[in-house]
Model the fold of this input.
Amino acid sequence: MPSWEIVVFIVAAVVAGGLSMGGVTLVYFLDQWREHPEPPDRRAAKGETGGA
Done:
C-alpha cells in the first residue's frame, strides 16, 4: 500500500487536472458563444437575415 502522501498527491493532481480542463472547456464555449451568440436557424425564424 502506498504511503498517504502519495495518495494525497495523486488525489490533488486529479482534482487540479479536472478543474483545469473544466476551465479550458468553459473558456472555449464562452468564446464560441461570443462569436456566434445565436444559431442561424433561430435568426431565420425571427425573420432576420445575415446579409448586409
Remarks:
- The radius of gyration is 21 Å.
- The mean pLDDT is 80.
